[in-house]
Amino acid sequence: MSNAQSQIPEVVIFRLPIYLYMLSLLTEENTEVVSSQELGTRLQMTPAQIRKDLSYFGKFGKQGKGYHVKTLSAELRKIIGLDQEWNMALIGVGRIGKALLDYGNLALRGFKIVAAFDIDPQLIGKKAGGVIIQDTRELSKTVNNKDIKIGVVAVPPTQVQKAVDLLVGCGIKAILSYYPVATNVPSDVRVRKVDPMFALQTMTYYLRRLGPV
Amino acid sequence: MSNAQSQIPEVVIFRLPIYLYMLSLLTEENTEVVSSQELGTRLQMTPAQIRKDLSYFGKFGKQGKGYHVKTLSAELRKIIGLDQEWNMALIGVGRIGKALLDYGNLALRGFKIVAAFDIDPQLIGKKAGGVIIQDTRELSKTVNNKDIKIGVVAVPPTQVQKAVDLLVGCGIKAILSYYPVATNVPSDVRVRKVDPMFALQTMTYYLRRLGPV
After folding, report:
1. Which of its termini does chain A have fewer beta carbons within 10 Å around, N or C?
2. A200, closest residue in chain B (CA to CA)
3. Sequence-ordered list of residues with C-beta below 8 angstroms from that of B131, at least 6 positions apart, any chain
4. What is the ipTM of this complex?
5. Which among B108, B193, B201 has the least Cβ separation from residue A82?
């Protein structure tokens, strides 16, 4: 890790998946080279902003020639860390947890739930989505054995902090939570919530403009 | 609806919730006025970009004086459509659907699931999260009676298109889908997917920098 890279503002990191998504669209359109101008038009960002964001990570593209779509895409995937598969542990095999085990691994390319945990004796030992549900007491051992780096928390809101604590205790530094409950974690642990609010908020703008509601 | 507003690029609309989120943080910090410079620093965007985005919707703030946080926040909430409550219909009371009924209304301020539908006779008539699960055949009537504008689809992937078609048939123009399955809808209908991929992708960047994995 270079020191320069550790100083990159988090909001810039948040935009990388957006650039990657746009590059994947351009790839589908068989576009080979794209200018920061064109990227700017598509993302409604200034070309200067895009160049500044990307310059944090190195020199991409040639002055006046634009970016080579496939190369930039591959570089961004590497920077984001998508050139490898990430093993995840699921805590909580209730409704959402079961659904994640059944369908999640199909949908989450590059991210794989390789172990699932619950405290319910009725569930422990049962099979779901290709894994055998384990007692949460086995979490630490399994995290090590299966090289798990990400925790997915799908327990009821009142249990979220407990599940997060368990994961943090096993050295997990990245947690995806399915309920928008606030959690306390050490500063080197990142918790992201699956939040439908942003998605909803971008639709109501348009609903409002369909006429009186 | 002004013609000008209907021409606003969708990516700009996508940034409005981000501005609103930042303004809510500033409100919590008791900041009364914020410059586009300061907003730019916080969001790592150029001040010009922010001013351009906001200028689509009118004149906010005074030259050299910055934006009044509470006023801009209230204006954006109005533009996005968050100054009213939105009634939603849930299709599919399986694992995710039940969880949404149990906890969703607590978490989704301004958005309320007022009706739930399923095709399973075992579920129809039962109560979940304050609503009585109805037969999907009653969807159209309920959408009208309860002034429902948004559909939430939480059925298994193979049933998503069918559920979306049902909603579209009832005149619903905004749909939130809980599985990342592609759907076909008329061009005036917006479908958003609750997608944990972006959240995961912003964490792997940091995981990679923790050392070899």
Report:
1. N
2. B176
3. B101, B113, B114, B115, B116
4. 0.76
5. B201
